[in-house]
Amino acid sequence: MVSIKLKFRPSSKKDSEGSVYFQIIYARKVRQLGIGLKITPTIWKFVSQQSLSALSNVCCGDVETGNVQRIISLEYTKIKTIVSELENNRVAFVVDDIIRRYQRKNVDGNLFLYIKRLMDLQTKLGNYRQKEIYNTLYNSLMRYTNGCDVSLASIDAHFVLSYEAYLKQRVIMNTSSFYMRNFRAVYNRAVEDGLVEQIYPFKHVYTGVDKTAKRAVSLPVIRKLKNIDLNNKPNLAFARDMFLFSFYTRGMAFIDMAYLKKNDLQNGRLVYSRRKTKQKLFIKWEKCMQDIVKRYFNPGTPYMLPILFRAGDKERNDYRNMSHKINGYLKIVSAMIGLDVPLTMYVARHAWASIAKSKNIPLSVISEGMGHDSEATTRIYLATLDTQAVDRANNIIINSL
Fold first, then answer.
1. Which helix (H) or strand (E) holds 117?
2. Fewer CB within 10 Å, N or C, the chain?
3. How far, in Å, are 240, 320, 330, 334 from residue 226 at the CA level?
């Protein structure tokens, strides 16, 4: 009799997502079978209370939990089907035969098929940003291998170093590191799923973050941007207003601006959760914010700003398209006000942090205002933004000689 049990391996970080796997027991042999699914302890608490056979029929009222239930139920059905096939063949088998058949049915041990499976999983879970990251990696690896799939077992130090060399000829160091970090994450997930043995092939590649060029602008630039006459250029005015709204709201990330809803404004405070960290932030509502929202008010949508227009996964496409358009318009505005470096929505976030620092606002306050999960993150954020204070100190020392 084959025993199939659903198990959960919690993360070492509190409240972070852990891995779901099946424990399969047969003939006194125990094996673990990962299914590439990560969930929060809260969702696991609900799912673990349900019967595997009836999981897909249990109504939870929560979209994310419902998707998790369906995925687990689907994988459970696959395993049950494999067990039935083996039993009906009336040929002796061991628990490893079940694992091998499952893996062969799902990805056949190939890298690109595995990444596609991860992309499909993120689509079902509604994690469209993570799906985009996997898709970007997938396309890059496809270009590197000229469209030829490779086995997960062939990913060794030589393969990884060769891919890094390929990237360094085409992109900057931080972009190469971005690809390598995500490639490593995919590989480690395949290890968790039991598809490949861990041989640590990423030991000798760069996965850090180099200091980047200064992205912040000064307060006079913000004033110039605010006062420029764009009345006859509605697209440029819209881009300028979105930049200022981000700056006014303590450097709110554009993705968070996109998903702001009218009911997030309560009793004179804007209350929202950062999509990146899930941290809840509270911002006092000011007249300058209200002026922008009023200018673009649309009674036919629940959203506060005209960035998203379609529901579901199309929201993500709306966000990306609007981000691209606004940054393009900001480039034009930058030239109009005489900036050497073009503005982007990300510059607004850096500008708020840099200006706050120049006003001697404590690091802890800047960190909380930006929704960073630690002051260490804020220190990294500010490290390359403003070197003027250091330059002034150096000038004082030199002049004292």
1. helix 111-125
2. C
3. 8, 25, 13, 12
Return the closest-CA partner of residue 82 out of 93, 66, 72.
93
List strands edge to edge, sheet with 280-284.
Answer: 265-266, 269-273, 280-284
Residue 69 structure tokens: 């239930």
| Cα→Cα distances 18→7, 40, 60, 80, Å | 10, 6, 20, 24
CB neighbours (10 Å) of residue 264?
Answer: 17
Measured CA to CA, the distance from residue 360 to residue 304 in angstroms comes to 32
Question: What domains appear along the chain, each with residue ranges and CATH number?
Answer: 1-106 (no CATH), 109-210 (1.10.150), 219-394 (1.10.443.10)
Q: Is the dihedral of CA 73, 90, 102, 143 positive or negative?
A: negative
Q: What is the largest CA-CA distance in the chain?
A: 92
Residues 6+ apart with CB under 8 A from 58: 50, 69
pTM of the entire structure?
0.59
* Dihedral angle computed from the Cα positions of residues 289, 295, 300 and 301, in that order, rounded to the nearest 10 degrees: -30
- Could you say which DSSP state residue 302 is in? S
Distance between CA 372 and CA 377 in Å, rounded?
6
From CA 4, how far away is CA 72, in angstroms rounded?
12
> What is the helix (H) or strand (E) element at residue 282, kind and residue range?
strand 280-284
The full DSSP string for 5-62 is: EEEEE--SSTT--EEEEEEEEETTEEEEEEEEEEE-HHHHHHHTTS-GGGGGG---S-
Beta bridge partners of 38: 19
Cβ proximity of 250 and 288 under 8 Å: no
pLDDT tens series, the chain, 401 aa: 899 999 999 988 877 888 899 999 999 999 998 887 888 898 898 888 888 877 767 666 566 787 788 888 888 988 999 999 999 988 899 999 998 888 766 655 688 888 988 998 888 888 888 899 999 999 999 999 888 778 888 899 999 999 999 999 998 888 999 999 999 999 999 888 777 889 999 999 998 876 555 567 888 999 999 999 999 999 999 999 999 999 999 889 999 999 999 999 999 999 998 887 788 888 899 999 999 999 999 999 999 999 998 776 678 889 989 999 999 999 999 999 999 888 999 898 888 888 887 777 777 777 777 776 666 666 655 655 444 554 555 556 446 54
Pair 250, 370: CB distance under 8 Å: yes
